Amino acid sequence: MAAIPSGATWFDTLKRSFANVPIDAANDNGVSTTEFLEAAESLTTLFDLLGSAAFSPVKSDLTGNIKKVRDRQLAAPGESETLQALVLNELKTKKHVASEGLLWLVRGLDFTAQSLRHNIDNASKELSDSFRDAYGRTLKPHHSFIIKPIFSAAMSATPYRNTFYEKLGNDSERVKAALEREVKALEEVVQILKAFQERKEAKW
């Protein structure tokens, strides 16, 4: 993990922020595939920051789904400039490996966004409460009885709120502003993709 320069925040060390993922509002809110995958990969390192091996399955779940989407992008780059185009073009081939990968990736990102949003909006809550609350509303309904205990263990392994925020940088106001910016951008992308995935042509 990259060292945080003095006066900066952890978010400044990321290769790509969700705030810098192009969205083509004039073209069905098309989300640019390359930048989205870079931002998603960058955000998975948040689970390293949480400092517990219990989060390894959460991170590997996200990275595995990122790989499925990227593999399709590499196989058909001309048909995959936006995530929406990637899904629709893959489904035409009667396959849905990347489309399903993106579905799970969006669920994982929704979980991350809701966890962080809950913690931002509830200053007295510990991280474990925020993560548990978000897990119940996002991933848990889709997980099997085998997977649920693995993820539940991770929710209980989160560091104390103060410890986590200190890891994000030593200037609390800058950390707060950077966290709000990233979460807001992530929420926007997640909402666009969830709405798209609800559409008939995006299902298999």
UniProtKB/TrEMBL annotation:
Glycolipid transfer protein domain mapped to chain residues: 31-169
Positions in coiled-coil regions: 169-196
Pfam families the record matches: GLTP (PF08718)
Keyword Transport assigned: yes
Signal peptide annotation: none
SUPFAM superfamilies: Glycolipid transfer protein, GLTP
Keywords of the record: Coiled coil, Transport
PANTHER family linked to this entry: GLYCOLIPID TRANSFER PROTEIN-RELATED, PLECKSTRIN HOMOLOGY DOMAIN-CONTAINING FAMILY A MEMBER 8
Protein name: Glycolipid transfer protein domain-containing protein
